[in-house]
Design brief:
Number of domains: 1
Order of helices and strands: HHHH
Helix content: 55-70%
Largest sheet: none
CATH superfamily: ACP-like
Number of strands: 0
Strand content: under 5%
CATH class: Mainly Alpha
Distance between the termini: 24 Å
Oligomer: single chain
Number of helices: 4
Structural class: mainly alpha
């Protein structure tokens, strides 16, 4: 697991990704504002989920962006999922 699966670090990472998509400074992204308020649509949701999968090392369903609408909600949810992935050892073939 990457070092940035802590909720605070993950929140900053997601805010930086969203800022990159919007071509603005990360400080302009309010973690409590719904991502849709920034104009992020389903295309960006898919891109963000792909980036999250690469970053976290596990699949991220694109609907998670709509279920957890802000950077704050999304990072808290994904940090919990990441913790579950660390707690569950990978299955090995017999």
């Amino acid at each position: 697991m990457p070092a940035t699966d802590h909720p605070t670090e993950l929140r900053e990472w997601i805010a930086h990704r969203v800022a990159d998509y919007l071509e603005c400074a990360p400080e302009a992204i309010d973690p409590g504002v719904p991502l849709s308020d920034y104009g992020l649509d389903s295309v960006y949701a898919f891109v963000l989920c792909g980036d999250l999968e690469d970053h976290l090392g596990f699949p991220v369903d694109p609907t998670v962006v709509w279920d957890h609408r802000s950077v704050e909600e999304l990072s808290a949810h994904l940090a919990g999922v990441a913790a579950g992935h660390r707690a569950d050892p990978p299955e090995t073939a017999p």
